[in-house]
């Protein structure tokens, strides 16, 4: 089942619907596969760290770090979707991100949720 079967939206071309909710309106959970996650750890390069340190003195958005975090979150989510597909899921419920510092060398981002098989309600 492709995502086009879910009625469109921003995830139109994906194979796995990812939602933060416990269910998907109009669909029933046929099978719970279990927890899936995507994990990545990114370090900041020295130029970014120096720039962030200087910017923190005057305030404002740290654009380089923001860009890195967005890329990192996207990679973690891609890995989550790959794992869900590999396990036979067509949806992930209760999707969340967890972000932590990893031993003062980078940022760890974990995307996680519950892989399920859903089908339209009859």
UniProtKB/TrEMBL annotation:
Pfam family, one: YbjQ_1
Protein name (record): UPF0145 protein BLA24_16620
InterPro entries assigned to the protein according to its UniProt record, in alphabetical order: UPF0145_dom_sf, UPF0145_YbjQ-like
Top-level taxon: Bacteria
Gene3D superfamilies for this protein: Hypothetical protein apc22750. Chain B (3.30.110.70)
Source species taxonomy: Bacteria, Bacillati, Actinomycetota, Actinomycetes, Kitasatosporales
Family: Belongs to the UPF0145 family.
């Amino acid at each position: 089942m492709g995502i086009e079967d879910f009625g469109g939206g921003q995830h139109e071309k994906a194979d796995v619907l990812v939602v933060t909710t416990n269910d998907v309106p109009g669909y029933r959970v046929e099978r719970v596969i279990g927890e899936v996650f995507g994990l990545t750890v990114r370090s900041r390069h020295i130029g970014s760290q120096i720039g962030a340190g200087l910017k923190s003195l005057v305030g404002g958005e740290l654009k380089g770090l923001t860009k890195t975090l967005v890329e990192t979150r996207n990679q973690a989510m891609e890995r989550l979707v790959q794992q869900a597909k590999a396990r036979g899921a067509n949806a992930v419920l209760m999707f969340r991100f967890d972000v932590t510092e990893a031993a003062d060398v980078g940022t760890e981002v974990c995307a996680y949720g519950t892989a399920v098989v859903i089908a339209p309600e009859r």
